[in-house]
Amino acid sequence: MSAGFVRTTIIGALVLLLLPAMLGKYPLFILTVALVYSVSTLGLNLAAGYGGQHSFGHGAFMLAGAYAVAIGTGKWAIPFPAALLIGVVVAAVLGAMVGIPSIRLVGFALAIVSFAFGVTAHSLIKASDYTGGPTGLFVPALPVLGLDFRKPWPLYYLTVALFLAGLIIAESIATSRTGRALRSVAQSEIVSQALGINPLRYKLIVFVTSAVYGAVSGGLLAASAGYVAPETYGPDLSIFMFAAIVIGGMGSQAGAILGAFFIGLIPELTQASRETSEILFAIVFAAAATLAPDGLWGLGARFRRRASAPAAAQVAKGGA
Amino acid sequence: MLIAGTILSGVIHGSLYALLGLAIVLIFRTTGVANFAQGDLAMFTAFIALAIMKNSHLPILVVWLIDAVIAAGIGALVYVVLIRPRPEATGLNVTMRTMGLFMLLFAVAVRLWAAHEPYPVPSPFPAGTNALPGLAIAYTQLGALVVTLGLAAAFFVFFRFTQLGLAMRAVAINREVASLLGVNIGRITVVTWMLATASSAIVGVLVAPISFLETGLMRPYLLKAFTAAIIGGLTSFPGVLVGGLLLGIVESLATLLMAIQFRELVSFVVLLTVLFFFPGGIFGRAFKGRV
After folding, report:
1. pLDDT of B136-166, one tens digit each?
2. Does the beta-carbon distance from A293 to B86 stay under 8 Å?
3. How many whole angstroms separate alpha carbon B24 and alpha carbon A25?
4. How far is residue B263's CA from residue A124's CA, in Å, rounded to a whole number?
5. Cβ A116–B223 below 8 Å, yes or no?
6. What is the pLDDT averaged over residues A35-39?
7. What's residue A309's pLDDT?
8. From CA B120, how far away is CA B150, in angstroms rounded?
9. Phi-psi group of A143: left, alpha or beta (phi > 0 → left; psi -120 to 50 → alpha; rest → beta)
């Protein structure tokens, strides 16, 4: 972890702790959702951005977390943290089950297999009566130590805490020996094997880790919405999560967070145009992907480079 | 007879998966992009075909041809506006752009047409479900199978025997070398997008009369087409055909034995099983890349 990361994180944490004092109820809800998405994209970015595993089924892990919270607290009447923990365990097991046969696959094969996994999970949960079928389930009040985590303020601070923990863990994985091994595996499996790294082991570890992030995020999303329904956790969510890290910028924590905020906030901004909001969102989305191929964070980095070393940028451009 | 009918119905669905998969493979091998908009391009152009049918008295087959030409134009437009800018982008980034297109097409279709869906769509084939004695197969389904197989055959002839097809294969194998040998890469890529969009337009007008036309028409087909492509090895035309047919038949047989909700699970299991034995797909190579 670099000094820059620590400094930025402390400033960011202070802003997140103090900002809500200035926000109304609805902006607070939007900020909560964007942070919940960030937890998910931070995890996905570990697998996809650092590990080069393009998982298009991340929504299924969020589904596991969300339904665990809804079923655990609603049907079994167990405490919220225990239900969330069950979701995490289920997602980790699912991650290993899908991961073991599919991490040998490269590039788009893994993308499509994980996409198919997401679609399958969605269709099964939709077909089951126990999970409420197509209509889903309500999430009851979530009292823990006298606080109800269905209420905006406790949920916001819980989300901030889990978001910061997720960020710090993700950054320490990325900068540790594991992170270096992952990056080398993503670059070339053959070279990493020659260096004594077991690619499958690292890929599986990071895939399961990303599933755990997804489950935590899904559990928080269920708490913030107050209900779970299959359509929320369908293939669209998986695609949005992956799109978030590509649009934000893969392979950096900042990019993952930026992308999650993009996915969380842009629909709110385009909603003003009513009937055409979906169309507008799609155009903004496509434009961001087309105009910033390295993601929004990469775009910023490019400008910073250009400002600091115009000559070098010129050479790089001429050479390309 | 039940088994025979089920298998034939599987072959019909499978051939439609395969034709859409063919378009996906075509774009993937030339550009390295997984086109997530392929299905909704078919849906969108099917609505265009329906609009032409409603506002003219042209024979349906002529409308299909006009629709395919319009689709080719849309394909070229998509390439110029969405795919060509910033050529330094990775295949993954361009795949995201196709997801943007997928969302855009869907949103525009919902805005324009969702209020009155589903729409019945005329077919050039006769009505009725007794196309073959004893098998409950509709003429529209049998017609779809014939058209699909005809198009697949045309694809093979095109790639095997024409100059343009040869150039397209060369670009798929190695862009740099093809370019050095005088192949115009930009032109080949435009033609690829036009061909792929036109053939998915045909899938659209084939599927629409079988089930009613609605904005979500191609959602299930997209995943099946991708699955067929992966089973076949992602870059192989015979592979995607085999993959599509295999998927269609297994799915049909499975619905005999279990509830329809398990359909997605069945195709997922087929995919995992094939990849377990052939990690690179049946017709693909399990490539590791070079150091």
Report:
1. 788 888 889 999 999 999 988 998 899 999 9
2. yes
3. 45
4. 10
5. yes
6. 95
7. 60
8. 25
9. beta
Largest CA distance in chain B: 60
pLDDT at A186 (0 to 100): 79
Cα B91 from Cα A52, distance rounded (Å): 13
β-strands A137-138, A227-228 pairing? antiparallel
Q: Does B250 touch chain A (CB under 8 A)?
A: no
Residue listed under structure tokens 């529209």: B140
Hey, are the CB atoms on A113 and B279 less than 8 Å from each other?
A: no
Q: Which pLDDT belongs to residue B176?
A: 86
Which is nearest to A243 in space by CA: A113, A54, A107? A54
d(CA B4, CA A156): 59
Residue B25: count of CB within 10 angstroms of its CB? 28
B133 shares contact with chain A (CB less than 8 Å): no
B162: CB partners within 8 A, 6+ apart: none
Identify from A279, A280, A294 which residue to disrupt to test chain B contact, counting B C-beta atoms within 10 A and taking the largest count. A279
Judged against a pLDDT cut of 80, whether residue A305 lies above it is answered with no
Residues of A in contact with B259 (CB under 8 A): 127
Share of chain A above pLDDT 90, in %: 30
Strand partners, A134: none
A320–B86 C-beta distance less than 8 A: no
Average pLDDT in chain A:
85
What residue type is assigned to position B6 of the chain?
T
Residues B110-131 pLDDT 10s: 999 988 888 988 888 888 777 6
